[in-house]
Write a structure and sequence with these properties.
With 251 residues, the protein is mainly β. The chain has helices spanning 37-56, 101-104, 206-213, and strands at residues 28-34, 71-74, 77-83, 92-98, 111-113, 117-123, 128-133, 138-139, 151-158, 164-172, 176-182, 188-193, 197-203, 224-226, 246-247.
């Protein structure tokens, strides 16, 4: 756990070979709740507004006294750090306002992070989020016993020289909350189909991973390793029509 994952800790587009990559852990997905559409949409709108308003503030777009830039961009959406780490607390917290892949016409690339992530995906009206991983994720039952079914399917993603690699997918439906635990060094990607989705994410070991990688500052793109050179077009991110699908079975 003390070994660096990156070759160049502050590089923002470091790419490793997908064909030889092996996950260090297993992603765990836990449905939380289905909400009435007006409630879900109100929450998503309010949180997305926090990100959008935060990005307009000049102070969030320049380094603070600790070198942290709180307004950042990632391939999946615009990001705002809500709470930075401090000397007594290694974790921090972000909100991300998802891009709609249909509008942007680009999918996020398969990637991994230099530290663990704990994310809550929240969708509003007419929006779903496709979660993709290279290892079959563990899907847990909802704690309250309510049945929230995630559509799952398997497809392929191209590695080097066009070599296919199996990709496992689960779809967060509209007006739902789903949690995901992502271990350090474990591949995943998120893509939103629709305009109404946000992520509330905690980086539990932010300061520790910076020290471990010998990075200069907090930077989401630099705390990422990509497994694809290019972003695919937006039409490859949805649920492919005609593909046989199965309902996720909670363990």
């Amino acid at each position: 756990m003390n070994e660096r994952l990156k070759n160049s800790p502050d590089a923002e587009n470091e790419i490793h070979r997908m064909n030889s990559f092996e996950d260090l852990g297993l992603c765990v997905i836990t449905p939380v709740v289905r909400l009435d559409d007006h409630v879900a949409q109100g929450i998503v709108d309010s949180l997305a507004k926090v990100v959008r308003d935060g990005h307009k503030m000049g102070s969030n777009n320049t380094p603070d006294a600790d070198g942290i830039v709180r307004a950042q961009q990632f391939e999946e959406g615009d990001v705002l750090m809500l709470t930075p780490p401090n000397d007594s607390f290694a974790a921090d917290r972000y909100l991300m306002d998802f891009y709609d892949v249909r509008t942007k016409d680009l999918c996020s690339r398969m990637h991994l992070h230099t530290g663990m992530r704990y994310v809550r995906i929240m969708t509003g009206r007419e929006t779903s989020v496709r979660i993709s991983t290279l290892s079959r994720p563990r899907i847990m039952p909802q704690a309250s016993g309510e049945k929230i079914t995630l559509t799952t399917f398997v497809d392929e993603v191209e590695g080097e020289e066009g070599t296919p690699r199996t990709r496992f997918n689960a779809v967060v439906p509209p007006c739902s909350w789903v949690d995901m635990q992502i271990p350090r060094g474990t591949a995943h990607q998120f893509n939103a189909v629709g305009q109404n989705a946000v992520i509330d994410t905690v980086h539990p070991e932010e300061s520790i991973e910076l020290f471990r990688e010998r990075a200069k500052r907090v930077n989401m793109m630099a705390q990422t390793i990509f497994l694809e050179t290019d972003q695919e077009s937006g039409d490859s991110c949805g649920t492919p029509s005609g593909m046989s699908q199965e309902s996720a079975v909670a363990e």
